[in-house]
């Protein structure tokens, strides 16, 4: 920036400050008494009757001024929301009822199961069998691994027979 441009800008800034001070000091008065103009009017107090206030309140509540379509809401104000019913519990897994009664033979091992869905008595199973939605993944000398569509469990004998 050149010296000439800088001087011009400083001059404009100083002129603005002087004009602001003059305007602030000698600006338009807030009351008309200093310049001879008539004084500002005194505000008047309006009196309303109770019936006028009640009619205005009724007009306001029936026309819903704060709603876009000017009609009452579908749900009354202040009514509690009814919480949704909890979802039903998931059905129990068929694996929950199965118990390992014993292991037979070996190898290949066979297992004796009780509580198999759709069977009243104990069932002898091999690796790869499917009973009532339960798949036998593995049978070993001391345990069996069972699986259904979304989970798997391992059942172990308390005491191995020898």
Brief summary:
With 162 residues, the protein is of the alpha+beta class. The protein has helices at 3-25, 50-63; strands spanning 99-105, 109-114, 123-125, 130-131, 134-139, 143-147, 152-156.
Task: Output the helix-strand order.
Answer: HHEEEEEEE
pLDDT < 50 runs, ≥5 residues: none
Q: Give the strand order of the largest sheet, numbering strands 1, 2, ... along the chain.
A: 4-5-6-7
The percent range for helix content is: 10-25%
Largest sheet: 4 strands, antiparallel
Assign the CATH class of the domain at 94-156: Mainly Beta
DSSP summary: helix tally? 2
CATH architecture annotation name of the domain at 94-156: Roll
Radius of gyration: 46 Å
Number of strands: 7
Morphology call: elongated
Percent strand? 15-25%
Amino-to-carboxy terminus distance: 104 Å
- Judged by helices, strands and strand pairing, the structural class is alpha+beta
Mean pLDDT metric? 83
What is the CATH topology assignment of the domain at 94-156? SH3 type barrels
Description:
By secondary structure, the protein is α+β, with helices and mostly antiparallel strands. It has helices at residues 3-25, 50-63; strands spanning 99-105, 109-114, 123-125, 130-131, 134-139, 143-147, 152-156. The protein has a domain at 94-156: SH3 type barrels (Roll). It contains 2 helices and 7 strands, in the order H-H-E-E-E-E-E-E-E. Strands 4-5-6-7 form a 4-stranded antiparallel β-sheet, with no helix packed on it. A hairpin with a 3-residue loop joins strand 5 and strand 6 (143-147).
